[in-house]
Amino acid sequence: MQIINAKQVQQKLTFPTLVEALKQQLCHPYSMPRRRVYALSEAAEDQDAFALLPAWDDESIAVKAFTYLPDNPVKNPGYESLYSQILLFDRQTGVPQALIDGTSVTYWRTAAISALATSFLAREKSSRLLLCATGNLASYMALAHASVRPITAIRVWGRNPQKVAATISAIKAQRADIEVTAADALQVDVPWADIISCATGSPTPLFPGEWVSPGTHTDFVGNHHKDCRECDTYLVTTAQVYVDSRLNVFNEAGELLIPVAEGLFSLDEVKAELAELCQGKAGGRLNDNDITLFKSVGSALADLAGARLVFKAMQEQ
């Protein structure tokens, strides 16, 4: 069994190849049970968790396991809040093939899933991206969107100026051809954008939905809690809503569940999940005036596709 570390994942993945691999993955039969997240403590204030995400198809079986200890960097300096590994098996023989760094694959596949949705839902000439994110995932999100649309300008918003600057530098290091600047004020930057991508830890909406211009594509990946959300009810009720996976989003995402609890939205109003777009069972953007909204919480199937792509690249090497 091969051990593949984070550095090797970074060397082998590119967004064009990963986005296409995810698209093909979603077009073929697969199985993906609901992921399991286990609280590691009964204390209400303790958010420590352990999770398992399985998926399989005719070629491979994959299971991602991760630990989430949000206070780890404070309690244990030098340690991360999240650690993850993906175990890949051959479907025909059951033989373990590889143990792959799951944290790096998660960054890549999360951004690539959003980019795949953008390829169906954003206007083809979308060139202005507002990135509301400054964490580890931020630069991946920007680079992924720029791989499927002709992005010429990116504005980065965050509450920490140092993190904003670091995110800008990370994007420029990969795409010197794109103008990347700090966002001045969301009241100005939200209407400016053709695509808005949000990957924050905010428990409350980042901006009023009324600020979003007609034709904008919005993307929300930061929240995984039923009682939290990055966008407000107004945006959900006025947008054409799509999800990466009904199974997981309908169980976890406050962006949709809070408007449902308010009696202002029904889950039946979700237009499609990403697999239906890829398979041609549902259409994407209908016109240039619609606001589209994509909510993603991540899926084991995306982990499988990303891990297998890395494994095959290593085998070819």
From TrEMBL:
Signal sequence extent: none
Gene3D superfamilies the UniProt entry points to: NAD(P)-binding Rossmann-like Domain (3.40.50.720), ornithine cyclodeaminase, domain 1 (3.30.1780.10)
Name of this chain's protein: Ornithine cyclodeaminase family protein
